[in-house]
Amino acid sequence: MKDKPLVSVIVPVYNAGDYLEECLKSIGGQSYENLEIILVDDGSTDGSAERCDAFAQRDPRARVIHQKNMGAAGARRNGVRTASGEYVCFVDADDTADSGMAAFFVKNMGHCDLLTSGYRRATGSGGYVVWTDALQEGIYDTEQEKKYVLKNMIAYENRFVAGVQPYLCGKLYRTRIVRDVIEDIDPSIVYSEDRDLLFRYILKAGGIRITHTSYYYYRENPASIMQTVNKSFMSDLNKLYLSLGRAFAGHPEEESLRRQLELFLVSRMYFIPSFMGFSDEASIMGYVFPFSELKPGSRIVLYGAGMIGVRYYRQIHRQGLLQMAAWVDKNWERHAEQNFPVSSPEKLADCDYDYVIIAVKKKGLAEEIKKELVEWRGVAGERILWREPALL
Q1: What is the CATH number of domain 281-391?
Q2: What is the rounded CA–CA span in Å between residue 307 and residue 328?
Q3: Taking the CA of residue 246 as centre, how many other CA atoms within 13 Å lie in the half-sphere pointing to its CB?
Q4: Is the pTM of this model over 0.70?
Q5: What is the tens place of the pLDDT at every residue in 151-188?
Q6: What share of the chain is helix, strand, coil (3-state, %, to 5)?
Q7: Which CATH class name applies to 7-225?
């Protein structure tokens, strides 16, 4: 293995339950064998620590760090501090990796300092949705190309779409750079701590290789931080904002980086009620669902996942009179990223419904959507409903 660089795979582990065994099996079964597997037990209390120790006994490439609970950022930092590989990649304890992931990473890294890939996110039907960077595949290593990455990594073309998927997993890093960057990370950041490390890393990286190949399998764990109510969400979000603001200060692209960061924060404002667990009464204040005359049991497709669509969706579920056949939006990916069950409009092709309800405010936009639904999706015009949203 002397001609194959060592890859340190770092896995933060906190109460990963039964998911952990599948995760470790996927790492141990990589076709690229020159791995150092660092399992950081972050004060687990559910038997995960013992599972880590048992795996290390079975696989000589693995070792376990036991620490008091510090959160994912602190666990990753301690793992990186002890890594001896030329490269580092991260795997979350409730996810899995295809057996060819590490081999693909090493083969395609080349002279670059960062390699990105897509990931597969499980759907409720047993399939997967593939998520990739908005940036096109290729090597970005000239000054002009790296500037382009920086101008688009958080908000691609100034939209609510990430140019580089803001997750640490599914990527390959150079240890010498990530070790330096991770020391600047505040381990108390619990919301989107991935972004804090990733974007700081990109600032210091040389060449970047973007790929859309997807070897990583993301699992939605109901016990994860992203799936639970967080009453401190706004303060946690502000902590991330201040941290990245400090990282961007004085950078030649500071203005663009700050503008993108602000767009990211605005995109999160829509989800404060759900993330903070507000009551239904507080969550639905604003626009009222205007189709109370629909027959109970009618199957509807909700088109639109902006502020109005979110309020309609919550009211429909609260009342329990109508059946949601689907919730669709052209920008479904960024909404699904917030753990809302939003799909692509393509879903209309194989969906059984009675009505499509357009959840937008402006009549002109609603007419454009209706025209597209009729001409491109084959939806009968009489089944498409829109009314100007009424304020509560």
Answers
A1: 3.40.50.720
A2: 14
A3: 10
A4: yes
A5: 999 998 887 778 999 999 999 999 999 999 999 988 88
A6: 40, 20, 40
A7: alpha beta
